[in-house]
Amino acid sequence: MKKLLPVLLGGCLLTAAHTHAQTKINQDSLMRYYSRLAKGSEGDKALLTQQMYALTKSKKETDWLTAANMFYQLKKNSIADSIYKVAGEKFPAGIVVRNKSVETIYNENDPVKKETLYKAWIKKFPQGKLNKDVIIYDYARNSVGSAYAAADNLPKALEYANSIESPFWKGQGWAGTAAGILKHGHTAEAKVLLKKAIKDAYEFKTTRKEEEGAGFAAMGYPGYLSSYAQLLFDDKEYDSALVYLKRAEAAETPVRPQVNEMYARVLLAKGDYRQAYQRMSEVVAQGKLNAVNKEFLATAYAKVRGDKGLENYIDSLKGGLDEKMRQEFAKQIIKEPAPGFTLKDVDGNTVSLADYKGKTVVLDFWATWCGPCKASFPAMKKAMEKYKNDPNVKFLFVHTWEKEEQAIASAKKFVTSNNYPFEVLMDLKDPETGLNKVVDSYKVTGIPTKFVIDGKGNIRFRFTGFSGGDDAAVAEVSAMVSLANQ
What we know:
Blueprint: H1 4-10, H2 16-22, H3 27-38, H4 42-55, H5 61-73, H6 77-90, H7 95-101, H8 103-107, H9 111-124, H10 134-150, H11 154-161, H12 170-182, H13 187-205, H14 214-219, H15 221-234, H16 238-250, H17 257-270, H18 273-285, H19 291-304, H20 310-330, E1 336-337, E2 342-345, E3 350-352, E4 360-366, H21 371-386, E5 393-399, H22 407-417, E6 424-426, H23 437-441, E7 449-453, E8 458-464, H24 470-484
Parallel strand pairs: 4-5, 5-6
Antiparallel strand pairs: 1-8, 2-3, 2-6, 4-7, 7-8
Helix pairs in contact: 3-4, 4-5, 5-6, 9-10, 10-11, 10-12, 11-12, 12-13, 13-15, 15-16, 15-17, 16-17, 17-18, 17-19, 18-19, 20-24, 21-24
Signal peptide: 1-21
Domain Thioredoxin: 332-485
Keywords: Redox-active center, Signal
């Protein structure tokens, strides 16, 4: 903060001509203009810096937030953080304080206390005044409703589920509440919520697909259908369950493994072992076999094949997965110089990418707060085990975008308590810029993101996210490593 104020005071003037020109640009065009400057020449960036400091003289909080966001784009995170802090002090009933205050609602587990906090929060920050951000109020309402669902207060859970206002998020709210109340046996009420979610998502796929957020709203359609089919299955309404599963199957290509798994369960219950066998074979071929659905395959396999060759059959399907992944990733190979870096590991040892020249390096960016990152780790452990006797393949796990002061201790505790044999490096924030330099140099926009770097120091593959399924993830890594070595 002390470093920021002199700069703020010294950079607050704009020429009259430029100010006049700005007034002719509408807000959307203005933001595009700012973004172009942020990506432009050093002169453009200097001009943008001057303009953003000028915005901090505004009496509008939105101008301060625009300035902060642009400084983030300019990779001046420390300045951006300071502007946010000052904005919170300058506008105590504004957006920054509102967004920070809502965390108290999320952090409370008791539903009654959570609702009390929510009512106090919404009284202090009325939705009408900041109604462009309806979704943050929906998140808060959903948090209260979810707590009531967990506590088996059905009326309150339904009340909050039906209070969601953002059209594109209604289905998500209904389906989430349905999952919560099902844990307490409220099947009839859950069916009502899921049918509403199905209807809503279908409309966003068809008649409402031009509306804001339609893609997100429609995304849940196959999952809602599969969840409803599960309830019909539980009630032994097998033929009705198949109707909904056929709709889920027709909704996307390829068919998601959860749908095929649910199909197999229904078919097994109906005694149609051959079709169940085919469905579960598809799940295996997609690399999504697990301890639960393997039992479905075993039952179907025994009825159809009648021998003891299940494991060999599974291996044969996985072999097809390996080849499929190779073909898929062969189309995605790139060749870009990998940014060098030197970091400390969780034990304080210095590690450089240059230390592994001549080796293939799998670089995995993650964080302890990142659910998909942690979900991918069992698969990454299996991938490491596959290459444990290959000295030319190295795995490095770079913890980044930390959200707590004890990030090093937290990262070390997580990997050791889960028996992950990972070499964890810490990409901590630079105290001057506020940037996590390594993740920024690799232009990562979301985690988990993995890179495969060949022995000559070139990035050959970049892969973001985790789709689930250990076999699929191992096959993906194996394909990338193999292709990078060619």
